[in-house]
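Protocol step 4 of 6: structure prediction from sequence.
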Amino acid sequence: QLQLVESGGGLVEPGGSLRLSCALSGSTVDYRAVGWFRQAPGKEREAVSCISWSGTNTHYADSVKGRFTISRDNGKNTVDLQMNSLTPDDTAVYFCAAAFMPADYVPTQAYEYDYWGQGIQVTVSS
């Protein structure tokens, strides 16, 4: 079993920054690619950024390239998402998810992930 817990969300003004963290725990932490997804009201869940187990390969949605950075610390079993230059369009519930994959593979589709956190709200508003 694997548990994922998100932290770091909240309310921020446009142009501000937030850092989300996903903590993984359980007996099957190794070889887990991790993805950050988000879902806004009335919209489908979308992949924001994903990272391979090795950390070598990453994926970013076009809408966040140059603004968001994903990173991981396998020693601490955490995956962070640094979000800069936030806009109201970034408002959503953010989820982290994990998938058992080869070390350098980056899954980018929600169906590829089999463990999900409960989600955390990010609101960008003045």
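Step 5 (inspection) to follow. The longest strand covers residues 18-26.
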